[in-house]
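## tool: complex_structure
## caller: assistant
## args:
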Amino acid sequence: AQSVTQPDIHITVSEGASLELRCNYSYGATPYLFWYVQSPGQGLQLLLKYFSGDTLVQGIKGFEAEFKRSQSSFNLRKPSVHWSDAAEYFCAVVESGGSYIPTFGRGTSLIVHP
Amino acid sequence: DSGVTQTPKHLITATGQRVTLRCSPRSGDLSVYWYQQSLDQGLQFLIQYYNGEERAKGNILERFSAQQFPDLHSELNLSSLELGDSALYFCASSPQGGSYEKLFFGSGTQLSVL
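## result:
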């Protein structure tokens, strides 16, 4: 069965610093990959997704992610973090050709210091 | 605003009781997904409906059931509640049955079983 690992439970960065959130998946074929953000008291919102093609994908709010097949990774990055980016971030995987139900990682909580 | 409406936002009840959570998907979306979010299990897929029919089933307990009505709203019924059922329950919708598209999440129902 597919699985998603987000190795960092919490990440703390200073405002203006760069950010990288890690995501690794376990699946034989190339899955569909997603990053969602959950702000306090809100539901999840899609930041970006990868299906095929260019392995560097751009999303909303200045986020980008890079798919690396050799590392089974789909890390989320942002060059300069804003205080409003403090939230919970979830990586998700959809098994292509399967049930198309997203499997979510456990999430990474981003804390931004002023 | 994702366009997905969940009611109630908060629910406090006692063990052994039965509750119903309601979800109205985005206008025109045919597919509804239910997820349970807890600290120890993360975001777990429960069940999916597509145009009134059950499409996929995940880690849903036998005490839990769901349905999707002709107007496409969905209800999740939780019975014989236990302390461990305390969690945030999300509903999400998508236009089609495949979630290779983005999911639109509601803001959730926080269930507290005392």
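## assistant note: The mean pLDDT of chain B is 93. The interface with chain A takes residues 2, 4, 33, 35, 42-43, 45, 48, 56, 58, 90, 92, 97-100, 102-103, 105-108 of chain B (CB under 8 Å). Handing back to user.
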